[in-house]
Amino acid sequence: MHGTTAIAGIGATEFSKESGRSELQLAIEASKSALDDAGVSPSQVDGFVSYGMDTSPSIDVARGLGAQALTYFGMVDYGGGAACGTIMHAAMAVATGAAQTVVAYRAFNERSGARFGTALNVEGWGVDARAANYAWYLPHGLMTPASWIAMFARRYMHLYGATSEDFGRVAVLDRQHASTNPKAWFYEKPITLEDHQASRWIAKPLHLLDCCQESDGGQAFVITSLERARDLQGTSAVIRASAQGAAYDQHSMTSFYRGDADRPLPEMGLVAEQLWDKSGLRAADIDAAVLYDHFSPFVLAQLEEFGFCGRGEAKDFLAEGNGTLDSALPINTHGGQLGEAYIHGMNGIAEGVRQIRGTAVNQAKRAEHVLVTAGTGVPTSALVLGVDS
User: Using one digit for the tens of pLDDT, what is the confidence trace for 274-290?
Assistant: First the structure.
């Protein structure tokens, strides 16, 4: 499927804090926008992929769009870790003949509806493996994503001597790019490192500005064969490589029990190994990167796992000015989830496609190969997108 499938269309709703409509409506709007971008009729769609956490079943989206006959429908688990996995599953369906035209989508009212940043409550859950897992955390005050990631961040600081200011550089970089992106929630609102340091604590060592925003919105994609994509309107992004990964002693957001000498994010390292093997590329070949940034410390770990710098060197890599539009590796040129919107990583894939097309607001000087990653701290996924040569 690698090199033979492509993202032919991208579409999104506006990103807001109160959409005023249902999550299903957002999913349908984003999907229709992606189909219009590709020049594909809804009646031609025969497959859908979304998240295990999405509230809009594919058959409901299909009815709303006017799709006629579905031959493939799938869901990818583990929250934000599913983002690039949806594209991978769609590409697999196309490459194997299970479907010809697949829509991957994600939509939610995460700010005006069920807020992801609030404390987890397992009341009403059955006595199952999920509830048993959280029984080790919730009674001890580890109740929110920020509290779980704070544990990761503290260990990373212990291992490599990173500081809160090092995490803050990610937030400053994202907001710098968001400030020139009219679709970003924080358009024209850059921050300084001093602003980051002055923002209130959420769960030490995480400041408010280390944590992604909560957003309402939808994002969708049309995936088909590269051969067919060439006959459609617009410019497609070739799927050069895709991968999923879950590593040794993997937990969902709470992988606290690995050995003292283990690297912080081995699941993303596993994904990186697959991407480089499947694409024949290496870190030096990547022209821009969209790194999942629901919490700033994970961006540093990802830079190291993909080989953009050595272990513990990401803090220096960023301090030296890497990540900006003028650097060798522009990062999160749309503003990321800290700056544009938190659509569970799907808006990052859209930015990857725009970079390949040459239509990004903050366009990299060169964008033949773009890396996009999905959620960190959970079983995850990633993509390498490329130009059609």
Answer: 999 999 999 999 999 99
